[in-house]
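Appendix B, record 7
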Amino acid sequence: MHDHDGQTLSVWMATDVVPTFSSLDHDEYADVCIVGAGIAGLTTAYWLSRLGKAVIVLDDGPIVSGETERSTAHLATALDSSYVELEWLHGEGGARLAAESHAAAIDQIEQIVFEEKIDCEFERLDGYLFTNPGEPPEALDRELAAAQRAGLTETSIVERAPLASYHTGKALRFPRQAQFNPLKYLAALAQAIIRDGGRIYTKTHATHIAGGEPARIETRDGPVVTASVVVVATNTPVNDMLAIHTKQAAYRTYVIGAGVPTGSINKGLYWDTKNPYHFIRLQTRRSDASAAPAGDLLIVGGEDHKTGQADDAAVRYKQLEEWTRSRFPMTADIRFRWSGQVVESMDGVAFIGRNPMDKQNVFIATGFSGNGMTCGAITGRLLTDLILGLENPWVWLYEPSRKTMRAAERFAKEALNTAAQYGKWLTRGDVSTAALVTPGTGAIVRRGLNKIAVYCDDAGQKHECSAVCPHLGGIVAWNHSEESWDCPCHGSRFNKLGKLLNGPANTDLQIVVEPQLVDVV
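Structure tokens (predicted):
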């Protein structure tokens, strides 16, 4: 995360509460090995450990250091895909299961908070969906009818969202939504996993994941984990090349945290219907947050784009700020700016279950879109039931091998977009020679038939990697805001020196040690 004024978001979100764990330095065996220590992985580990299974969790960073850390922590039954759309894609029964499972996810988090006595600022509140200016308000009537058919019978139309400074017009009210501090929540889950006999290893990169009897998970430093079952909960799967990645797409979403006077904005979750939409919530200042500045924090997100297909974060942050200030004139300083990666499935529903075209003991969880917190909770219960051989009514909706025929047009559009990105093999570089890459920036340089990702550090030293993503050969692009190399094909991301940040790639960019050809001018 990037701060704006020297403060960090941990002042508000208390990242210092997250426990640390050692790396794996010996071979291990478990009933279940879970790769990924975000909300999906830790929730699955929590339930399995609690039910007596021997569980190992592996993560190549600290726990909760991936996209879960970057969440705005909405817990909602108002989903990224509207109920009108979900009903069209999956039928009335599918829409009902989507609503039921997300509502159950919020209840589950609330139950765990109560039973484990977790101080994570969990709070029930209402959510409000309102139309973008110029859009017909009748869209809310259609969504209300679809939401009620899906079982959300307490939803209703109100004359406006309860925002004094922003007259939204009619809004659809979703009662009993929630917000919480995911870092504190998951820190407590990690401690509970250890209490119940689970093992967590961090800074441990799983280089090869293979199902079978037993499943085998090889790590970068040598130790191997064998297990009866393996769960890959890495935001997007790193254990296959095509099975899932052709059915989902990665997007960057942007967030600002703005200071506002205490009590000037009513607490709630708020969304508009713009595409991409805006999402809003309030983080109040806790009495024990003595280091935090006075006032509340208004968290506003949106301005999404496909990963690696835009490098204009400054413009997007500015648009978010302008949108916020025009509706909330009490906004003071912008204290935080950060972006996150969301993975959207082609049919609006996550993929949670057995990995397609793989052994029966390999499970995945991905495609959470902007509902990562509730999808993570759904993952925990659904995969626990599948692993234990229990019936679960949500299985067919989230089945990763499903084919949704009505999503075919979207699938084709995304496939064409991805195919177009490979045309970058034929283009010139961003600059004609590595000498033109200025300190603190990166650029692609063509060198013969090769494309090279060149980063120039603040001292002027050049660091060169192959620009070819090791997943499926896309050409990465420089992201100035995050100082990362992002693949526009399937969303893999690497740091400025080529180290892996996000899958589906599972290895670093290849280092260029001694260039063999001169740059193309």
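Remarks on this record: The two ends are 36 Å apart (CA to CA). The first strand starts at residue 2 and ends at 3.
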